[in-house]
Write a structure and sequence with these properties.
378 residues, alpha/beta, six-stranded mixed beta sheet, three-stranded antiparallel beta sheet, 35% helix, 12% strand
Length: 378
């Protein structure tokens, strides 16, 4: 069992007998066909219908059948990926966050959401989930979203037994996020809202696939780290966008699954010498032109190097959540401006409305893309 899971167990043991009390259930509403109810089903609606069932059974993406309240009103998230996904669908139901929002989030999110209590996360990260804080939050379900860990069934079953709180896993990748939102809509009785988000995800991904199939892909490296000596390697989990939209020249023997990528030498970077360099927000974009090694590279000499936008998360997907759709749109505009059929500002504004519930201003947009689209136009 992973250390983060054990940390939660230890926190719960300190409560010694203070098991989470069963929450009184509010008026319930119906789930649709993939959720088995404990009472007769009424016509599906996103509003409470007077269904007398207090609980329903929901089968999650890894085949676990979990008993949950029929009308969930308090949701906790397992990690940053779930946090971003659920914030789009149900910010009003969140009882806490898995990790602190980036400082830039303050200008985009309502204060009530920006200041939600920190509960921590199950896997990885600096803050392990705090069992006492989870129980105190009154969470009626904990939702895990993303690529399932090998031990996810065991982990979630154990946590559920320890806390008395249902844990649900919803599998999702950039390509399958539409289906993930539909599952979440069924679980949370928000099918209509979930369908809007699902359709957006599927349409945006399909548009990126169509664009990628219609162009001669550009040779690209995506560089991370303060020294500029880490790359996101072809075939790695975090290279999904790069491998779709570009000829990712970072071919290594053992691609890292970490967001920091693989460490390489300057000599290797010079061998790859791509047409375009993309830099992570935490990398050396601001000073790279003065770096003796990088100064020899074609992309630096031709000015074809750009910084991935950051706010409130890295658009290239660190963590690899729904903001990856911004990354797809951004790469299309930077790499293939003559081939795209959309206005990036309009698309980004639409995304911020749907996923962050924010009316993005032109000033905010220009600040976000200042080292990429702004650089192209300058």
């Amino acid at each position: 069992m992973k250390k983060r899971i054990l940390s939660l167990f230890l926190a719960l043991l300190l409560l010694s007998g203070c098991a989470a009390p069963a929450a009184e259930q509010p008026e319930t509403s119906s789930q649709d066909t993939t959720v088995e109810e404990t009472a007769p089903t009424t016509e599906e609606t996103t509003e409470p219908t007077g269904n007398t069932a207090e609980t329903v059974e929901f089968t999650d993406s890894v085949g676990r059948t979990v008993t949950v309240p029929a009308n969930i009103t308090k949701v906790a998230v397992s990690g940053p990926m779930a946090q971003i996904v659920l914030f789009a669908l149900c910010p009003d139901l969140l009882v806490g966050i898995a990790n602190e929002w980036d400082d830039s989030a303050a200008q985009f999110l309502d204060t009530e959401y920006y200041n939600l209590p920190l509960l921590g996360q199950l896997y990885g990260g600096q803050e392990a989930m705090n069992g006492e804080a989870l129980l105190a939050s009154g969470a009626e379900v904990v939702i895990d979203v993303g690529e399932p860990k090998d031990t996810v069934v065991e982990d979630l079953d154990t946590l559920q037994e320890q806390t008395g709180v249902p844990f649900v896993h919803i599998s999702a990748t950039t390509k399958t996020m539409g289906d993930a939102y539909r599952q979440l809509g069924k679980l949370l009785n928000r099918a209509d809202e979930a369908e809007v988000l699902a359709t957006y995800c599927e349409d945006t991904y399909a548009r990126a696939e169509e664009l990628a199939a219609s162009v001669d892909k550009v040779d690209v490296l995506y560089v991370t780290g303060s020294q500029g000596l880490n790359v996101i390697a072809q075939g790695s989990y975090h290279a999904e966008l790069l491998d779709l939209m570009t000829n990712n020249v970072a071919v290594v023997e053992s691609p890292s699954s970490k967001g920091t990528g693989n460490e390489v030498s300057m000599e290797q970077l010079l061998v790859w010498n791509p047409e375009v360099l993309l830099f992570a927000p935490d990398s050396i974009y601001d000073t790279v032109a003065e770096n003796d090694g990088y100064a020899q590279m074609t992309a630096i000499q031709t000015g074809r190097y750009y910084e991935a936008p950051m706010g409130p998360y890295n658009w290239m997907g660190f963590p690899p959540s729904v903001q990856r759709y911004l990354g797809l749109l951004w790469m299309g505009a930077v790499l293939y401006p003559d081939a795209i059929d959309y206005d990036l500002q309009e698309e980004v504004t639409k995304y911020f409305d749907l996923f962050y519930h924010c009316d993005l201003t032109t000033e905010q947009y220009e600040a976000l893309v200042a080292n990429s689209i702004g650089k192209l136009e300058g």
